[in-house]
Hints:
- There is one protein chain.
- By secondary structure, the protein is α+β, with helices and mostly antiparallel strands.
- It has two domains: 41-175, Recoverin, domain 1 (Orthogonal Bundle), CATH 1.10.238; 196-398, Exo-inulinase, domain 1 (Jelly Rolls), CATH 2.60.120.
- It is 21% helix and 31% strand.
- The protein has helices at 41-53, 63-77, 87-97, 119-131, 141-154, 165-175, 327-331; strands spanning 60-61, 84-85, 139-140, 163-164, 195-196, 206-207, 213-216, 219-224, 234-243, 246-254, 259-268, 277-285, 294-297, 301-304, 308-314, 317-323, 340-347, 350-355, 358-365, 375-381, 387-398.
- Strands 5, 7, 8, 10, 15, 16, 17, 18, 19 and 21 form a ten-stranded mixed beta sheet that branches. Strands 6-9-20-11-12-13-14 form a seven-stranded antiparallel beta sheet, with no helix packed on it. Strands 1-4 form a two-stranded antiparallel sheet.
- The longest helix is centred in the first third of the chain and has 15 residues, at 63-77.
- The protein is elongated and about 95 Å long.
Amino acid sequence: MKSSHTLGALALVGMIALSAPAQAPNPPPGGRGGRGGGFGPGNLLARQMIAQGDKNADQKLTKDEMSTLADAWFDKLDADKTGKLTQEQFTSKFGELLPVPQGGPGGGPPGGGRGGRGLGGFIGGGLFTVTDADKDGLLTRAEFKSAFEKWSADFDTDKSDSLSQEKLVAGLNGVLPRPNFGPRAPAPDDATGFAAIFDGKTLTGWDGDPKIWRAENGEIIGETTDANPITVNTFLIWRAGTTKDFEFKVDFKLSDGANSGVQYRSSVVSDAGQWTMKGYQADMDGANMFTGMIYEERGRGFLAPRGQFARVLGRDQTKLIGSVGESDALKTFIKAGDWNQIHIIARGGTLIQSVNGHVTSALVDEDEQGRALEGLLGLQIHVGPPTKIQFKNLLFKKL
């Protein structure tokens, strides 16, 4: 967003709803009368326990049968006879110990069959966790047998001294963690792999008008006044490296009426001023009309306004792939007159920008004549009324 360029209308040619995949609902404990229906861990495990541990064929397990079953299973799982099993060892063998026939009675977990994609991967981890009594990450025979013997008493609700399949289902569903059918939750982003490119004290490695830029209190500050105005957009240029495939994070704070941005993959326009740049810009302004959009300074102008996921095929050939949210809705995540963080990711022709953890714009730039795949990074002060901009926590990572 710069006054020297005219905003061209971008036609709306499509919209993609971005939503997280739905997770499968948790089935009720016990399933169909507690006999094999649904995907509860007890439903899956109880049938196998009865089949392998019921020595007198009465379809029930006594305390002795539970203890014997635990011994037999531990012997098979502890192939190296070390007396201890890690969770990885337990789950890798558990699926072989308890094969679940595809389409058989009681069904089976997604993936079925043998190995880690069957019961081993589906409920083995939960069984290990609840039987590892001291939570040291190693399961002993004594711990495994003790859990089975305790269950024989705890699940025996009518004190009949034996456990039917229904009792086993109900009891196991109560103690085993329910398997997660949905996608794994991603870990929050952090600063791993990033390096600070501002020492917090000096502008070493940076190049800009000393009358405008200074380092102060751990911040880079750019400021214009009535007595010290600018007549052309000016930039503080990072000279210690270039931006190609990279990530960049920075906290910024703008005064009312300020107009600024982070230049990347940019170059110096020497005939327009010693510190004048052109190229991609993560735009920002004090009124937050344009903050978060992908702009090109002294070039193709508005490439992906806030809320848009756009594709540029050539000059004046822009298509809308989809939406990353309504512009006004995204604006609510931006704190006026306070600190905000902008995060830029660039890899090849793909650019993504987010503000305060919310993606605000994305671009696939296929304009081989107009795009730049490498260039300089800089911080901007725009011409206009007296302005103060502040930056801190400047973090950079090559990809």
